[in-house]
Amino acid sequence: MTDRFAPPPSRGCSDTPVLKQRGQHEVFCGLTGIIWLHRKMQDAFFLVVGSRTCAHLLQSAAGVMIFAEPRFATAILEETDLAGLADAQDELDRVVGQLLERRSDIRQLFLVGSCPSEVIKLDLSRAAARMTEKFAPRVRVLNYSGSGIETTFTQGEDACLASMVPVLPQSAARELLLVGALPDVVEQQAVGLLEAMGVGPIRVLPAASVNDSYGIGENTVFALTQPFLTDTHAALERRGARHIAAPFPFGEEGTTAWLRAVASEFGVSQELFDTVTEAPRARARKAVAQASQSLNGKSVFFFPDSQLEIPLARFLTRECGMTAIEVGVPFLHRAVMAPDLDLLAQGPVIAEGQDVDKQLDRCRAARPDLSICGLGLANPLEAEGLTTKWSIELVFTPVHFYEQAGDLAGLFSRPLRRRNLLKLEAAE
Ligand code: SF4
């Protein structure tokens, strides 16, 4: 099978000077990740150590799921003075003791830090170590920060997964680790394609249950499915595992390149690779062609939010015919992003971090056909006649690999079609 993608650009964005912004930023905090992480890890419980604001955020973000048997909660610490810290530790021990007594299904407990000053002063890693000792072997207690001061909304998943890496046992087995919390159906598609090529054994981080635990070591190779997992990447490398660098599996091209990188690592022949991927590639091509008709020739501007911006800009420019004006990312990790940056043709401003007012000015001046941004910026931009897409939807919707490629293009084309319909109605 021959590749039908545009050739790599003669100059990609890898050497493009980066516009570094260090001002006010508008993003959700890392607590948001609990909403998708608790669905993946069936025996985990997330206890946010936070304030009423954190509890409200979780409840409104979780929406209807609050009616299900909850596997997350907020231990609310009121603002007290420093002398109250010992009490706070006692209070946390009491809450955790009650929780674990009531819920025998919990095998992994995550203490999740947040912003309030009292919480920042609490040493949650010591609390987690103390509780692990007390509740082992039934429950493993870990901690990470979801604080909005330290994390954007996707970094919560990264911090969570990174916290799990040091407690994985040592192993000399040669295994592939897929890293990232994908919806089950998408994960099964990826594993199915790789197994059809004879790649394996395949492990997944996060695993559905603590019982699915596996070891890690110098013979482990890992592939990231999400571009925001940079701390997890570092934690895995510290354990001796080796990263398989690849563009991220968005769209037909990204998926093929990602699969090819993994297949090459495991010595899969070109013939077998083509046999396994030919049919899903054809379906993905057709679906993207249909869904991207209204994207062709349009311009796009990314505000930094999800950390998915660079791979998505690559997908939209190379597979959907769009032009990228600015691609903003919360932070730029070269080792993880290089394969996507190489494929993204020079032209857009690559910006790291945010100074929201300056960026809004650049967006207003450019008048892009589509702006990808957080919820807080979407309404003001829409009111100014700009069409927007909420970046948070890209994390809540299945968008990876071949079978979702058309849906991914559709997520971007829908707001443009809606805007056109509104224009037509207004003209009638
Ligand atoms: S962690 Fe911080 S930003 Fe997130 S809800 Fe709590 S107080 Fe707000």
From TrEMBL:
Binding-site residues for [4Fe-4S] cluster, renumbered to this chain: C29, C54, C115
One Pfam family it belongs to: Oxidored_nitro
Keyword ATP-binding (UniProt): yes
SUPFAM superfamilies with a match to the protein in the record: Helical backbone' metal receptor
Record's catalysed reaction(s): chlorophyllide a + oxidized 2[4Fe-4S]-[ferredoxin] + 2 ADP + 2 phosphate = protochlorophyllide a + reduced 2[4Fe-4S]-[ferredoxin] + 2 ATP + 2 H2O
Enzyme Commission number(s) from the entry: 1.3.7.7
Keywords for the protein's UniProt record, in alphabetical order: 4Fe-4S, ATP-binding, Bacteriochlorophyll biosynthesis, Chlorophyll biosynthesis, Iron, Iron-sulfur, Metal-binding, Nucleotide-binding, Oxidoreductase, Photosynthesis
Top-level taxonomic group: Bacteria
One Gene Ontology term of the molecular function aspect: ATP binding
Family: Belongs to the BchN/ChlN family.
Complex and partners: Protochlorophyllide reductase is composed of three subunits; BchL, BchN and BchB. Forms a heterotetramer of two BchB and two BchN subunits.
Function: Component of the dark-operative protochlorophyllide reductase (DPOR) that uses Mg-ATP and reduced ferredoxin to reduce ring D of protochlorophyllide (Pchlide) to form chlorophyllide a (Chlide). This reaction is light-independent. The NB-protein (BchN-BchB) is the catalytic component of the complex.
Listed NCBIfam families: DPOR_bchN, PRK02842.1
Protein name per Swiss-Prot or TrEMBL: Light-independent protochlorophyllide reductase subunit N
Source organism of this protein record: Puniceibacterium antarcticum
